[in-house]
């Protein structure tokens, strides 16, 4: 019997996703029309032995999360529960804290997945791989190849090329170690808790020596990557399953547009019904486009490629949208043009206005390039990135908003370029 | 009567338009710049126009032959081998200008206003001296040559080039009327009329200033070309409002050639000139622009403060602004943002131009 854990983090995480994470927990942000997490859940639900999915995080229970959980349980006919950490316990501390819940019912193996990745989730392949490699107690990391420079932003894995055993693991090194990187998706057997437990005990002892009053808390904070994988490497315990199928992190808002593109492309195989088609009386569709059935779109609008349109969105005559996410309740008035942008919930864009960002796509000429979730500023200047309109932003007619981030509930009255508008 | 127009050189400041067509032939409000002047001169009784040019242009010659016919006047081209400045060309054309005792007009070529030629003649004959300079009021005189003169008589005391402290807000408007006697002051060599001839004439009490009523603009560069267009269209509104286009979707002063085709749901104006054979597709928004002959603007584009060159093509959902000038036959691809670009003829633009620059 299998279970899956999705690490959803908490409100203090996902700062690179502001201002969008002000309105909705980042794991629920829609990517290719559905909440980021739903892609994980769908992949898990396809495994015949999958008994339960546990979301572990440190968000206060909230309405959005509850609503999502109950919908997802119905849609995928599987038990899904949210387990709240009392504080951020790190990527290993949370699963250790809730180990009884994870193992209850006789779990033989379980997946752990970072919420902020987008992937084809080769879960059955990881299971087969585990059977073929090592013994039945071995653990599997899903890995992929990055380019040398970008590998430094990830967990780096050195493997035995014959056996795929992990020989060395280092998280975000400062010099080049390996171009095989950790994709944030693992397959563990219950034995993993012995290894985490060892670290926990050691932490506890260290705490006692330090005479820290909150020692218990600190001892429970454990990082899978630095504290566990680094130690397991070279112990014939940890293996890397590699694929070069699509995978990306979703750290910045810009990467949500890129991830949407990857998932929309996958819909040809998995969900052709979610892709809009050209039909009489409908808008002109170019490439992959998701339109929620409740959206109201003028037939003279031209959408795509890579456009996702949320519930209740209104799109006027002669509107153009490309490489963008339009969140629910937004209105794009006639002749407006939205490129490489995220338009926040209930925002309005006036006639003939142009909302445009600069894509941060990976270098298309490098097959191993990943998206750079760059920091906002470089040399004191805002780096050109996608344009993001927060919730309930009003853009007047005939202006341009270029490479800018507009915080929620702003009424703009002129053009802006390369600015953060508080 | 006669008039000499200082057409001069290549009109580099109005590039890229003047890479295709000599400056006097560039249409300003759907009429070549030069014809605004020539037609006004003809109305004032001028029968012979001399164009002082420092380069030869077949196009200009051919066009002038046609205009001779149409207007029933004589148009001569006076071609200098080396640029003679603003006074030298008068010496070169001396014979043409002195075959009678009548005064003659001299004009800078790219000045637009309500030409006051009849008033100039009257004023000139009244004071009876050798020269009259038309002056106009400007807000920022420090950029120009300022004229200091007696308010009641108009007698000019002196000229101050680009004054650093305020001396007067009246500047030389580039329009003169002279008596033939004045020509004896000029030799056949490069000479500046403003710097070398006028100060002496003023000193001797031979130069008078006449103040221009109404608008005035030197349209020799794109930014001023557009400002001049706004002023000119406003004066059309006052003098011949029927020439302007009105109706749903038209705002303010808009001039549209009858052969232009305009799509549905466009909003045009204020201050737009649409040339012959221009096509604006559906849903175009355009204000404060000149669109020259044969250009094509595709649907849902937004243009402000641009000059779109002859036969150029602007794609769908293009935003173009901030004194962008497209030369002849430029193609702007769909969905681009063009901010203050100066685009040479026959270029195809495939990437946005977010900051002002020249596209070679
Ligand atoms: N439940 C829980 N999840 C976490 C915690 N820290 C990180 N995560 C999640 O784990 C994943 C990886 O996060 P992190 O290691 O911080 O980022 P990365 O190393 O840059 O990928 C993300 O999905 C986070 O939301 C934590 O303390 N508790
Ligand atoms: N024929 C001729 N015209 C000239 C020459 N230099 C200037 N011009 C014209 O004389 C007028 C005044 O020129 P200038 O004093 O340079 O003023 P600006 O062009 O307005 O800066 C303009 O119409 C020029 O085209 C020249 O050497 N020969
Ligand atoms: Mg990490
Ligand atoms: Mg000039």
Automatic annotation (TrEMBL), chain A:
Residues 3-203 form the Nucleotidyl transferase domain. It holds the Pfam family NTP_transferase. InterPro entries: GMPPB_C, Hexapep_transf_CS, Mannose-1P_guanyltransferase, NTP_transferase_dom, Nucleotide-diphossugar_trans. GO terms for molecular function: GTP binding; nucleotidyltransferase activity. Pathway: Nucleotide-sugar biosynthesis; GDP-alpha-D-mannose biosynthesis; GDP-alpha-D-mannose from alpha-D-mannose 1-phosphate (GTP route): step 1/1. Regulatory subunit of the GMPPA-GMPPB mannose-1-phosphate guanylyltransferase complex; reduces the catalytic activity of GMPPB when part of the complex. Mediates allosteric feedback inhibition of GMPPB catalytic activity upon binding GDP-alpha-D-mannose. Together with GMPPB regulates GDP-alpha-D-mannose levels. One of two paralogs (gmppaa and gmppab) that may have redundant functions. The lineage of its organism: Eukaryota, Metazoa, Chordata, Craniata, Vertebrata. Keywords: GTP-binding, Nucleotide-binding, Nucleotidyltransferase, Transferase. It comes from Triplophysa tibetana. Residues 285-421 form the Mannose-1-phosphate guanyltransferase C-terminal domain. Belongs to the transferase hexapeptide repeat family. This is Mannose-1-phosphate guanyltransferase alpha-A. PROSITE patterns: HEXAPEP_TRANSFERASES. It comes from the Eukaryota. PANTHER family: SUGAR-1-PHOSPHATE GUANYL TRANSFERASE.
UniProtKB/TrEMBL annotation, chain B:
Belongs to the transferase hexapeptide repeat family. One of its GO terms (biological process) is GDP-mannose biosynthetic process. Its EC number is 2.7.7.13. It comes from the Eukaryota. Transmembrane segments: none annotated. SUPFAM superfamilies: Nucleotide-diphospho-sugar transferases. The keyword ATP-binding does not apply. Residues 251-359 form the Mannose-1-phosphate guanyltransferase C-terminal domain. One of its GO terms (molecular function) is mannose-1-phosphate guanylyltransferase (GTP) activity. Residues 2-234 form the Nucleotidyl transferase domain. The keyword RNA-binding does not apply. Keywords: GTP-binding, Nucleotide-binding, Nucleotidyltransferase, Transferase. It holds the Pfam family GMPPB_C. This is mannose-1-phosphate guanylyltransferase. CDD domains: M1P_guanylylT_B_like_N (cd06425). It is an enzyme of class 2 (transferase). It comes from Triplophysa tibetana. Pathway: Nucleotide-sugar biosynthesis; GDP-alpha-D-mannose biosynthesis; GDP-alpha-D-mannose from alpha-D-mannose 1-phosphate (GTP route): step 1/1.
